[in-house]
């Protein structure tokens, strides 16, 4: 058996104190990281629950142009999106951005072709 610990009680107690101090620091850090992760999860859940009323889906690429208007809760909206106000959604539809065929924001916003 490997016995690389000091033989005397005084040094063993010092090592134990030192390791206990480190375990306390590690446990505190674990608790802080867990709390941060829980807070991030709560924030993400709250954000998901507060879906915007309207979203504009954007095209591919840096600064992709708007390609489609959706209701905020539309299941067909892609990942590249940004929330917009009711007026911005109406303006986008009036400017020729297509309306989603699933959620039909044009009907709800009163912007029909």
Write a concise keyword list for the protein shown above:
rod-shaped, alpha+beta, 113 residues, 15% strand, four-stranded mixed sheet
How would you concisely characterize the structure shown here?
With 113 residues, the protein is an alpha+beta fold. It contains 3 helices and 4 strands.
Proportion in β-strands: 15-25%
Specify Rg, calculated over alpha carbons: 28 Å
User: Biggest sheet: strands, sense, closure?
Assistant: 4 strands, mixed
How many individual helices? 3
Broad shape: rod-shaped
- The tally of strands reads 4
Question: Strands of the biggest beta sheet: in what spatial order?
Answer: 3-1-2-4
Low-pLDDT stretches are none
Q: Please indicate the count of domains.
A: 2
How far apart are the termini? 84 Å
The average pLDDT score comes to 91
Helix content: 40-55%
The helix-and-strand class reads alpha+beta
One letter per element, helices H and strands E, the order comes to: HEEEHEH
């Amino acid at each position: 058996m490997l016995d690389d610990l000091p033989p005397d009680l005084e040094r063993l107690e010092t090592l134990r104190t030192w390791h206990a101090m480190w375990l306390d620091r590690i446990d505190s850090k674990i608790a802080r990281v867990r709390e941060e992760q829980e807070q991030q999860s709560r924030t993400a859940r709250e954000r998901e629950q507060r879906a915007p009323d309207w979203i504009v889906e954007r095209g591919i690429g840096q600064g992709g142009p708007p390609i489609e208007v959706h209701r905020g809760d539309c299941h067909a909206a892609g990942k590249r999106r940004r929330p917009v106000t009711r007026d911005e959604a109406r303006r986008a539809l009036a400017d020729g951005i297509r309306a989603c065929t699933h959620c039909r924001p044009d009907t709800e916003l009163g912007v029909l072709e």
